[in-house]
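Re: the pair you flagged

First of the two:
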Amino acid sequence: MQMERGLLNLDTFCEYLGIKKTKARELLHNPANGFTVRIGNRLYAHKGKLDEWLLNQIL
């Protein structure tokens, strides 16, 4: 049984959305998106909030 990740690092974020790292960094550096989590100097995407954000983008 594989455990699902709650936070996505840059590589998994890119793979999940099918985008390149430059665009992923641009999205993660935007504080208004609501899914970015900063731990130290690193940026992660909260998967649950990212999914909500994606749904809001298509509605």
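Second of the two:
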Amino acid sequence: MTGSLADPKTFFGSASRRRLVWALAVLVVVLLVRIATESGTIPPSPAPAPAVDYNPYAEIVRLQERLRAFPDDAAAYAGLGLAHLQQVREDGDASHYQQAEAAFQTALARQPEQIDGLVGMGMLALARHDFAGSIPWAEAALVVNPYRAEAVGLLVDAYVELGRYAEAVETGQAMVDLRPGVGSYSRASYLRELYGDTNGAIDAMQMALDVAVPGAESWRWTAVQLGHLHFNRGDWAQADVYYQAALKSNALYPFALAGRGRVAAAQGDTDSAIRFYAQAVDRLPLPEFAIPLGDLYTLTGQSEQAAGQYGLVRVIQRLNQAAGMAVDMELALFEADYGDPATALQLARQAYTARSSIYAADVLAWALHRNGADDEAQRYSAESLRLGTQDALLHYHAGVIAHSLGDEIAARQHLHRALALNPAFSFLRAENAHTLLASLRE
């Protein structure tokens, strides 16, 4: 049955991702356009020309000037909050979250049903990884306007991160039916990916790219996500096509630079991989760039440089925590791989309690393994694979845990599956997978 919960793999097929941060960025741009054109106090502007990027810093300056002249303009305060959220994507500075929160709260104090303020607070909760906390804001926005697709999208994102997948599928279908477009197609892509339908995920993300504004940041991000989908199934050449397309739009786009780094590393060109990742970190210091750069330094014997990147990750996460972000799951995985296993386990249990998704289960399984609790680890590892997600790292972790338990058949199956999905899924882990398989053949 297409387009229903009866078959999640064909979900969204009747209405014709990748990640939460991208979904929030799309919401920001959409909402800011609405604020600028629908508010009774800000005159409408002509439709923007294609390939002209939204500039969050310029929008912050413009709205601050607006509010000095019209301090009771609730819509302008909501727009200011959205611009601060988007600015985090530009500079990685999580302190903008506090400024966004203050702006949204001021908007809602002046107009309690200011819907962009309600949606903005939901977006802020998601950005801080308070997934349960985003749901009441989305529901409040839908009370004001039951047809607000962005509020429906917030619910989809929250349900996914909380591991409430059936609700995510149902709500995601409702979003596609309500407004087919970039935000709904990208969520369809991610849900298809979670359920193991990689081809369907690629189709949906291609639909998102086709309707995105060419040359805009949201178009570049969508192109990169499409590249990731191809990379994650081992099609590195096709992935690189999308990464390069994004860089033609903006030669310093960090997500595309990192994508090209992944491809170069997969092809054995570590020098180019390091160069691309270093450019990405310089442009936007994020753990998702610093960790693989550290791994590449490790692989090439540059231990001091590797330690510098791993240290940067801890600094970034401390700053994120100070800005109100919950980073237990991310820190747990990092500590399990590079730091203190006991700390990793404590953080992983906290994360799983807060958000029992398949990825939280995987992190908990890995932390338990690193602490020698492989029997319990195996249970959570099996949970992480329950949707049929074709993720090489999930299978790698399952294979290592099975190996530790002496289950050589399961270890071979999972390690072979990880490498079949993507022979370069994670630089150090792929190398270890080959080593383990070689030992199992002896």
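The domain at 251-325 is CATH 1.25.40.10 (Serine Threonine Protein Phosphatase 5, Tetratricopeptide repeat).

-B.
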